[in-house]
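PT: before anyone asks, these are the final sequences, not the draft ones from last week. 573 residues across everything. Please model them as a single complex and drop the result in this thread when it's through.
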Amino acid sequence: MRLTLAEVEHIAELAHLSLGEEEKVRYREQLSAILEYAQQLQELDTDAVSPTATVLPIHSVTRPDNPQPSMGQDDLLSNAPASADGMFRVPVILE
Amino acid sequence: MEYEAVIGLEVHAQLATRSKMFCGCDANVFEAKPNTHTCPVCTGMPGALPVINELAVEYAIMAGLALNCQIAKFTKWDRKNYHYPDLPKGYQISQYDLPLARDGWLTIEVNGYQKRVDIRRAHLEEDTGKSSHAGDHSLVDLNRSGVPLLEVVTEPDLRSAEETYAFLVTLRSILRYLGISTADMEKGAMRCEPNISLRPVGAEEYGRQTEIKNLNSFRAVRAALAYEIDRQTRILESGGRVERVTMGWDEQRGVTIPQRSKETAEDYRYFPEPDLPPLLIGQEWVERVRAQLPELPDARKARFIEHYGLSAYDAGVLVADKETADFYEDAARAYGGKPKTVSNWVSGELFRLAKESGAAGGVTPAGLAELVSLVDRGAISNSTAKEVLAEMYRSGEAAGEIVARRGLAQISDQEVLEAAVVQVLAENPEQVQQYLAGKETIAQWLMGQVMRATRGKANPQVALALLTRQLDARKEQS
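LR: through. Structure below.
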């Protein structure tokens, strides 16, 4: 399965990456190789197998609805590159 | 050509759990200090793991049953991937191909006709944070991140702005009866994104649709859809083509405007959430929830008609809001008389007062029952009762106290009224003569004088009887 350059550009955009022309060509090769490798799985007949929702041997793990203490605002924002008015400050969002 | 609108809805309702969907942070974040209801899980710190809030699942089952849905025996979680600053993990935990509930329906009533609206699915997910825009930068508050959301998706069964409005009111009413959401659109606890297209009446195929965002009230939904139907009609009639875009509702200007959006189609790359094992919902759980479901608006309406002898219209008005229905029932029980009388007071005077003040007011069910009883006993007139109710509404004072303090009690005392009647007749000999001469309509004018003499407090029935008796006596003498 060989990706087109347009597909590489689409994936880069979804990932918020800006790639140079040379990078697009390089990643096209690498991503295609990965997909081709994984494509071997398509040879298996999985008609009788239900889709895997989890690989864990457990299900239905829940907790009761009891509020627990939260982090402090200062603690949370200490990781933020920039903050203002108790909030994360980020580049302007275009909507 | 005649066109018809085809409308489908995506509705999000915040569930009123105490803690968030996947962590223990307090979920009541309305007007909380920014970023104080947060923890490593709901802010997407590396290594933090989500755990399902069992009550949120139970609430979703309740909603699913109330919407006549099938509840999934096996349901799972999926990641919906996209980048936005208010989504700290870079994905939202949602449900994709195996929603908790599916294939339901709801009956709505619009301008006297009933209609069934099919529900495609209802599933659980987590809310995002909130971003606000401040000039050259944006600010992000993650309090809301992780609050449980119920998403309800309808089939494109709605055909007008009115039907859509009715659907939302009905859905809100059900969520409130269940006690699982405040469903308050103004406060963002319920959000609605309609998609709408037009097609020639009778056509099977759907037209090209637009989606409308930024709707912060039921009225806005109705107004935006009416506008959008009009806009699309004009485009189609002039031979144009509706662009498949997201429109934003501009409340001030009352118009929908295309929102700037990227060229790329939505591509969320859903995949199963590896951090959460699937959820198995046993039949016992579903049946236990079903057994605990409260009486829902439709059933309550039927009971009000049957048990209280109310008209379908009156019952419908009362049950639309759970608190109003509760108030009515408590008042009707406390009153014990004809239930219709209390219904008239609730949907008449009380609604008017609530509309004028926009507040809840200080009238209790027992207080209203007392007031209506005072009217029944003839202690106060109907018009005085309205005045008293307005004061009860403002101050919370009891009807009896207001009547006593302000001296509003109706005069039914025969001696007192007789004296007033005799005095009025003595003061107006000319009119009495006209009456005796055969101009019987003058009795009404004399009655008015009696009411004036008693400053409006005379019991009209008693006073009229006394006046008639006095006049008849004079007639016999003459």
